[in-house]
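step=predict obj=Cell division protein FtsL n=100
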Amino acid sequence: MQSTLAVKSQPGTTLTVLTVALWLLVVASALLVVDTTHGARLSYFQLESLRREAAELEVQRGQYLLEQSTWAAYSRVEKLAQTKLSMRVPEPAEIIMVAP
């Protein structure tokens, strides 16, 4: 004696289940698209912020290089050596040449 349970499906049940499953997949796909788009926008805003910061740092670097060249100018160094250190340019007779 063999007993089997047979489930009889109604004519539109399979189509209805398939339709619901496809709709769930469409909704899940739409949510993933929204999440990916949001992540891309956040990354873009972060990139733009970093680009602005890099531009500001480049301007600051240029200002520091200008300041460095001003502080190291030959005329400024010579003037400080004369006033603060009481140094002077030697006379030609005071210069001794050293052979290599």
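step=describe
The CA atoms of residues 5 and 78 lie 107 Å apart.
step=end
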